[in-house]
Design goal:
The chain has 18 helices and 6 strands. With 470 residues, the chain is mainly alpha-helical. A two-stranded antiparallel sheet has the order 1-2. Bound molecules: arginine.
C-alpha cells in the first residue's frame, strides 16, 4: 500500500507545507521566525503587493475581478495593522506570509493568486529596498535640521574666540562659529553619501522570482515605476541576493555616527569643569544620584556610545554576506535587524545632537581666556617677521620660539605680556607693530584665507551654506 502518511494540517505551514507531513519543532519555528523584526516592513510589503497585483491584472495573468478582490483585501490588512488590531503569528514566520494568510482569511482562495510570478525572495528584497529608501529620506531631513542648528549657533558665534587644538594642545585661536561649521561640512558629506546610496539602491528586484525570473509575461518596468524605482534590476540572480544597498546604508550611517560622536566627545570635554566652554540646561543634562553638584552630558555620552553599535551593525551585515554564494540564503534574514537598529540609533542621535546644539549656552569668557593660554599666537609673531622683515619662515619660527621661552620665564599668561624691549632683546628687528599681532583677536581677524577662521570668512561661509541648504 502506498497510503500517504496522515497529515496534521494545523501544524504544517499552510503556505508552503504541501510536501511536509508535519510541522517544525518548536526550536525550528523559533529560529526560523522573523516576524518580530520584519513586521516593520508591512507598509512596504503591502505597497509592493499592490503594484504586483495591478501588473498581474494589466498583463492578463489574473482576472480583473480577482485583482480587485486582492486590492480590497490588502487595504483591509493594512488598516488592521495600522490600527494595531492585526494578530501577528510567529507560526507564519514573516511579514510576507502574515499578510498573505490574513488576505486569505478575508477574501478566500483568490488570495492565492497574488503570489503568481513572485517569490518571497524578490518580495523581501523589494520591501527592504523601499524601507531603506524611506529611512534615507528621513535621516536626510534630520541631518539637514542639525545643519540648520549648527548654522544658527555659528552665526551667533562668528566672533567668539576659542582655542583651536591639535593633539588637544592649544594650537591657534579660532572662532567658535568656524568650529561649528566644520561639523556642518562633515554632515553635508554624510548626506551626500546617503544620497549616493539612494541612487544605486533605487532598482526594483520585484519579478526576479525566487532567482531565475518567471515564465509569466510580467511587466517589471510597470511594477518598478509604480513603486518609484528608476528601473528593474537587470539580473534576477543579483536582484534576490544583492544586499549592497543595505551595506552602503550602514556604512553611511556608521560614518555619520562617527562624526556625531566626535562632536559629542567635544561637548563632553567642553562641559567638564576645567574647560566650562559650554553648559547644557536641565533639558539636556542629568544629575548624579550621589554627588549633588553633578550635571552630566549623558546625551552626548550616549551619542558617542551608540556609535559603537552602529559600526557593529555594519560589520554584522558584511560578515553575514561574505561567505554566501548566489543566490538567496536564510542567513540573509539577519540583514534587517542591524539596519533597523542602526537607523533607530542614528535617528535618535541626530535629534539629540540637534537638541544639544540648540540648547547649549556658550561661555565666551572662558573660551576667550583659554584661547590666549599656551602662547597660541606664537605663529602670528613668526608670520610678522616674515611679512614685515622678510625673515625666512624657518628662522622666524626659531625667533618666535625664543619669545615663547622668554614669556614662560617671565611667567606671562600669554604672549601679550611681552614688552617691545623683551622682543628686541630676542631680535633687534622687532618694532612696535609686532605687539599688535599678539592678541587672540588680531590673530583670528588675520586668518582671512579662503576657508579660514576670521569672522569675515566665517560669515561668508554661513551665507554660502544657507544657499546650499535652501
Ligand atoms: N523572511 C525572509 C527573509 O527575510 C523572507 C524570504 C524567505 N525566502 C525563503 N526562500 N525562505 O529573508
Amino acid at each position: 500500500m502506498n497510503a500517504k502518511p496522515p497529515k496534521n494540517k494545523d501544524s504544517a505551514n499552510a503556505l508552503w507545507g504541501g510536501r511536509f507531513a508535519a510541522g517544525p519543532s518548536a526550536i525550528m519555528a523559533r529560529i526560523n521566525a522573523s516576524i518580530d523584526v520584519d513586521r516593520r516592513l508591512y507598509k512596504q510589503d503591502i505597497a509592493a503587493s499592490r503594484a504586483h497585483c495591478q501588473m498581474l491584472v494589466d498583463a492578463a495573468i489574473i482576472a480583473a475581478a480577482d485583482g480587485k478582490a486582492i486590492l480590497g483585501g490588502l487595504d483591509t490588512v493594512e488598516a488592521e495593522i495600522d490600527s494595531g488590531a492585526f494578530n501577528f503569528s510567529a507560526k507564519l514566520e514573516d511579514i510576507h506570509m502574515n499578510v498573505e494568510s490574513r488576505l486569505k482569511d478575508l477574501i478566500g482562495d483568490v488570495a492565492g493568486r497574488l503570489h503568481t510570478a513572485r517569490s518571497r525572495n524578490d518580495q523581501v528584497a523589494t520591501d527592504f529596498r523601499l524601507w531603506v529608501r524611506d529611512a534615507i529620506d528621513n535621516l536626510d531631513a534630520g541631518l539637514k535640521d542639525l545643519q540648520m542648528a549648527l548654522l544658527v549657533r555659528a552665526d551667533e558665534h562668528a566672533e567668539t574666540i576659542m582655542p583651536g587644538f591639535t593633539h588637544l594642545q592649544t594650537a591657534q585661536p579660532v572662532t567658535f562659529g568656524h568650529h561649528l561649521l566644520a561639523y556642518a561640512e562633515m554632515i553635508d558629506r554624510d548626506r551626500g553619501r546617503l544620497r549616493d546610496a539612494r541612487l544605486r539602491l533605487n532598482e526594483s528586484p520585484l519579478g526576479a522570482g525566487a532567482l531565475a525570473g518567471t515564465s509569466f509575461p510580467i511587466d517589471r518596468h510597470q511594477t518598478a515605476q509604480a513603486l518609484g524605482f528608476e528601473r528593474p534590476a537587470a539580473n534576477s540572480l543579483d536582484a534576490v541576493s544583492d544586499r549592497d544597498f543595505a551595506v552602503e546604508f550602514l556604512a553611511a550611517c556608521a560614518l555619520t555616527s562617527v562624526h556625531l560622536s566626535r562632536l559629542a566627545e567635544e561637548i563632553v570635554i567642553w562641559m567638564s569643569a576645567p574647560f566650562r566652554f559650554v553648559m547644557l540646561s536641565d533639558a539636556f543634562s542629568t544629575g548624579s544620584s550621589m554627588m549633588p553638584q553633578k550635571r552630566n552630558p549623558d546625551a552626548a555620552e550616549l551619542v558617542r556610545g551608540k556609535t559603537g553599535r552602529v559600526i557593529g551593525d555594519m560589520n554584522a551585515l558584511l560578515i553575514m554576506l561574505k561567505g554566501l554564494p548566489l543566490t538567496y540564503f536564510k542567513d540573509m534574514q539577519e540583514d534587517k535587524e542591524p539596519v533597523f537598529d542602526a537607523y533607530d540609533s542614528l535617528e535618535l542621535c541626530v535629534a539629540a545632537m540637534g537638541g544639544m546644539v540648540r540648547d547649549m549656552t556658550v561661555q565666551a569668557a572662558a573660551m576667550r581666556a583659554a584661547a590666549a593660554q599656551g602662547f597660541s599666537t606664537a605663529t602670528d609673531l613668526a608670520d610678522w617677521l616674515v611679512r614685515e622683515e622678510n625673515v625666512p619662515f624657518r628662522d622666524a619660527h626659531e625667533i618666535a620660539g625664543r619669545a615663547v621661552r622668554a614669556a614662560e620665564e617671565k611667567n606671562c599668561a600669554d604672549l601679550s605680556g611681552l614688552t617691545l624691549s623683551d622682543l628686541q632683546g630676542i631680535d633687534a628687528r622687532f618694532t612696535k607693530g609686532a605687539l599688535d599681532v599678539l592678541s587672540v583677536e588680531s590673530s583670528v581677524a588675520s586668518r582671512t584665507s579662503y576657508g579660514g577662521t576670521s569672522p569675515t570668512r566665517v560669515r561668508e561661509q554661513i551665507v554660502a551654506f544657507r544657499k546650499r541648504l535652501s
